[in-house]
Write a structure and sequence with these properties.
This protein has 268 residues and is α/β, with parallel strands linked by helices. The protein has a single domain, classed as Metal-dependent hydrolases (TIM Barrel, Alpha-Beta Barrel). Helices cover 31% and strands 16% of the residues. The chain is built from 7 helices and 8 strands; from the N terminus they run αβαβαβαβαβαβαββ. The strands form 2 sheets. Strands 1-2-3-4-5-6 form a 6-stranded parallel sheet. A two-stranded antiparallel ribbon has the order 7-8. Strand 1, helix 2 and strand 2 form a beta-alpha-beta unit.
């Protein structure tokens, strides 16, 4: 008998303007591959609609909820959770707290996609923006922002927590001194990191985060979830079995399932 896979807790909808397929199609794909639980995590709005062009608009929040409810109704064998992927940008803490209160979310993912205020370091159109950058300094800033995002007390999961490697830009030397304060804060807040399988589709060619970071996280005892970061239905649950194997190799024995902002720890 096949082992039940954990939920895919990271996926998007057309409301972010760079994904395709309706939520009900994602849920139907989940059912096809044997998943019993998924969660939608659309890129959350920022104040005003001109922050960038790859996130849901504030006026679409209610539509987002409706689309997820429709997906759940049409796919009764799949439990469908509601969440947002919120960008942590210093100075927007009040906005983040406000978003968290807009709905009874099942969980919240916090992610860092911007450094130095407005450098979109992982955007596929911004590969050239790494030229001349101090890679070590960029990584150090990234992990300090991840630490701050964990400390905010809003997020249940920190998303793709080495996204900074997306194009293959690696710092010199050992990264553990950057990782440790972040992971210690994740542990202190009793939140989770995710294994995000989408890294295999990027130039870095491996899941987020790296095995070494995962081993440190497992040793500290932080929580764990899984996500495909699907932007189209066919990618729901992509490589989840390999991600589970990676988690076990790294020393994890449990993963987290969420409902109404609370988690339960589930053994593999």
């Amino acid at each position: 008998m096949a082992v039940a896979l954990p939920p895919d807790y990271h996926m998007h909808t057309p409301l972010c303007h760079h994904a395709e397929g309706e939520p009900t199609e994602y849920a139907a794909q989940a059912a096809r591959i044997g998943l019993t639980e998924i969660g939608f995590t659309e890129h959350a709005p920022m104040p005003g609609d001109d922050f960038d062009n790859w996130r849901m608009l504030e006026r679409d929040l209610n539509l987002y909820i409706e689309k997820i409810d429709h997906a759940a109704a049409e796919n009764p064998t799949v439990t469908v959770r509601k969440s947002l992927e919120i960008d942590f940008v210093p100075g927007y803490e009040d906005w983040i707290h406000d978003l968290a209160k807009r709905h009874k979310w099942d969980y919240m993912i916090g992610s860092v996609h911007y450094l130095g205020g407005k450098w979109s370091f992982d955007h596929p159109d911004k590969r050239e923006s790494w030229k001349g950058r101090d890679v070590n300094a960029a990584w150090a800033e990234y992990y300090e922002l991840l630490r701050q995002s964990a400390a905010l007390g809003v997020f249940d999961i920190i998303g793709h927590c080495d996204l900074i490697k997306v194009f293959g830009d690696q710092p010199s030397g050992d990264c553990s001194a950057m990782w440790r304060p972040f992971l210690d804060e994740v542990k202190r807040q009793d939140i989770a990191i995710e294994i995000n399988t989408n890294g295999v589709n990027k130039p870095c060619g491996e899941m987020y985060p790296s095995p070494a970071l995962l081993e440190m996280a497992a040793g500290i005892g932080v929580g764990l979830t899984f996500g495909s970061d699907a932007h189209k239905p066919g990618r729901v649950g992509e490589q989840l079995d390999q991600a589970v194997a990676l988690a076990k190799r790294s020393g994890f024995t449990h993963y987290r399932r969420f409902a109404g902002g609370k988690y339960e720890s589930v053994p593999f």
